[in-house]
Amino acid sequence: MILLLPLLGLLALRNRGARAEWTSPLVYPSPQGYGAADWAQAYSKAQSLVAKMTLEEMNNITLGVSTANTGCVGLSGSVPRVGFPGLCLHDAGNGVRDTDGVYAYASGLHIGATWNASLAYDRAFYMGAEFRRKGVNVALGPVVGPVGRLATNGRNWEAFASDPYLNGILGAQSVLGLQKSVIASIKHFVAYEQETNRNPITNGHDGVVHSTSANLDDKTMHELYVWPFQDLIYAGAGSVMCSYNRINNTYACENSKAMNGILKGELNFQGFVVSDWAGQHSSLPSANAGLDMAMPNSQYWDKDQLARAVDSQTMNRTRLVDMATRVVATWYQFGQDDTLFPSTGVGMAKDLLAPHTFVDARDPASKPSLLDQAIQGHVLVKNVNNSLPLKSPKVLSVFGYDAVAQTSFDPGEGTFAQNWEAIGLQQQQFQDLASNSPVSSAPSRFMGTLIVGGGSGSNTPSYISTPFEALQQRAYQDDTVLFHDFTSTDPGVVATSDACLVFINEYASEAWDRPGLADQESDQLVKNVAAHCRNTIVVIHNAGTRLVDAWIDNKNVTAVIFAHLPGQEAWRSVVQLLYGDSSPSGRLPYTVAKKASDYGSLLTACQAQGSNSPQCDFDEGVNIDYRSFLARGVTPRFAFGYGLTYSSFEYSNLQMSINATATPSNARSAPVYTNGTTGQNQNNALVGVAGLTSLFDNVGMITAMISNTGGISAAEVAQLYIQLPASSTSSGSAATRVLRGFNKVTVQPGSSAQVSFQLRRKDVSFWDTVSQSWVIPSGQFLVFVGKSVLDTPLTGSFTTT
């Protein structure tokens, strides 16, 4: 009887306006954390500490509290009586936001474009140390959801790629780096793939319009959206943030299937689940479904509702104890009880414009990494007749609003990338855009050098230096005549220009989805310059996919660089590439189409269309981005994984050593949490943190030789794609091929290097909806190794029986 009332409340909430074919199963009770793997000592300490707390104190540490003393975006309740100080939670995955004395790191998408796992680790390592010095306990990142279902998603730039594998590998390295200093809260769990209608809104005539329901099947959930989260949990992530959207008509932060069944059950997650800010919509249903902490406050828990529910036996005491224990255990797990850990929020001033103590969190040792991140995330996609690198030009003309800094940088007014003037908005206009109304006039360009996108994932640079400043320094060295016009859409072009550089950008932000994939005024600027300059080079700082069909085939446009969001080193990085001090080594972590309609149904967000219960059916299954293009036979402009260098490479000698065997048809790999089951993981030696441990066993190695046939040292990104046998498609449509490995290697001219790809059991498995387990299919696996998903000079196969 204890769980009856919460379950009935959840059922009623879940079914309001729900479609019968898309309902989320109930999974109760919530699995208790028990200290799996290396969490055992932390749980032992936490259980002892929580045992000293009253029910009200346990209730208190599960929600955010308000304070005038810190700029932390979230501050959990504390229990000073027993020595628990509470936790400072702060944005986000690209650096410490809204403060001073920190660096602005390259964005997630920019790191995705590097295809460099060690660089992802280094970035997170230095970033995490800054969070720690500022007294932050929990860094709200990295982002691996959205996965990139929609080309116009306003938050794609926060994640690493439009691919679960690349997100998983780079995200896992980011967790490892961050957690050398603080707790990582990985987000947004799960199937959070649009900003439009992300939050419920009150409709004066018809009541509440609920958040969009992401409707998807079990196979798609596991193989696409849960996939990267599993990798990050395996890396030891201490916290998971549940998302704003509904999943099969139940809000993510009260979805028992997602949190109890998948996250805490199948993946055996030992840390705590925190809501996205104001993402909680119920009291007992959210708690019983697996939510452990509500942020930034909670109207549902802030009056001791959970403690009273335990007293009245409408909630199991074990659930409240588990909530508190998970929070405290995570604090212990990452050594934050140490007296050397900075006091909570010590460097996070509430108001930067008011007198405050300056806490410098920067480490000069991170500067080489900051520059390396910025350089490696640039992707050269066109270079006709070796227009780049520049060769000491006598006359150089520079155009475009993105070449110079925005006119003001006032950290007191909020995040750098949401400066109203810089995106042409007034505050009221921004608030209108951030509502759930369909966006038709959102800003698509940023008036100044764009180094990061907008919203909670933005960051605060120590300084803003621009491409034009670096070009001026280079002009001084080379005695180049430098002309410029940063304001006109149809500038005059000096006829003697050896080259014309055009700097434009494509802006995106949390709170709204992009109205399109190209800014018309920026395109017109490129066309106007190219009409008068035979060597027009375009640099685009882009917060997501950017179409170039308006001018890419113009013979006067000789080179194009997708510069992404490089952080505060935008100036030095791009000029080093333009002049050949470094060879471009970035590759696209998404697909660039020839035209917008080529994305089909995955171009724009689902709309409410007058319904109080907006629905979005993920009918494409696992086939997003390049998988969708392959499945539909559509040829892109630039393929996933594509990018040029200043050298050339050849591939040879594909070798495979595979020891994977097909999973017997009657085998079930691990227990599946369904309604009424609990405690299975603790007694199952096959299960560890992130679920079935054997999924991460190596089952094969594939190698190839890469030869630099050009004249300079350069880096090549070798990529491995695999097509699973037809037997893996029994539960849904399979992609033609999927990324299952990458290796970035620098090779000297005339030399060769071997690249290797390790295959995990997970990489050759599919999710079988019948047995509810990961299965290696029997049959022939096709292997593709090359420079992009469409350029794979080496092919082969292996067979499992």
Automatic annotation (TrEMBL):
Q: Is Ligase tagged as a keyword?
A: no
The terms describing its cellular component in GO are: extracellular region
Recorded hits in PROSITE patterns, A to Z, give: GLYCOSYL_HYDROL_F3
Signal peptide residues on this chain, from the entry's feature table: 1-20
The record's annotation in InterPro entries points to: Cellulose_deg_GH3 (IPR050288), Fn3-like (IPR026891), GH (IPR017853), Glyco_hydro_3_AS (IPR019800), Glyco_hydro_3_C (IPR002772), Glyco_hydro_3_C_sf (IPR036881), Glyco_hydro_3_N (IPR001764), Glyco_hydro_3_N_sf (IPR036962)
- Quote the subcellular location field of this record: Secreted
Q: Name one GO molecular function term.
A: beta-glucosidase activity
Alphabetized UniProt keyword annotations: Carbohydrate metabolism, Cellulose degradation, Glycoprotein, Glycosidase, Hydrolase, Polysaccharide degradation, Secreted, Signal
Domain (Fibronectin type III-like) ranges: 716-789
EC assignment: 3.2.1.21
Instruction: Check the record and name the SMART domains matching this protein.
Output: Fn3_like
Which transformation does this protein catalyse, written as a reaction? Hydrolysis of terminal, non-reducing beta-D-glucosyl residues with release of beta-D-glucose
* One Pfam family it belongs to: Glyco_hydro_3
Q: Which PANTHER family would you find in this protein's record?
A: BETA-GLUCOSIDASE, BETA-GLUCOSIDASE M-RELATED
Protein name (record): beta-glucosidase
Origin organism is Dissoconium aciculare CBS 342.82
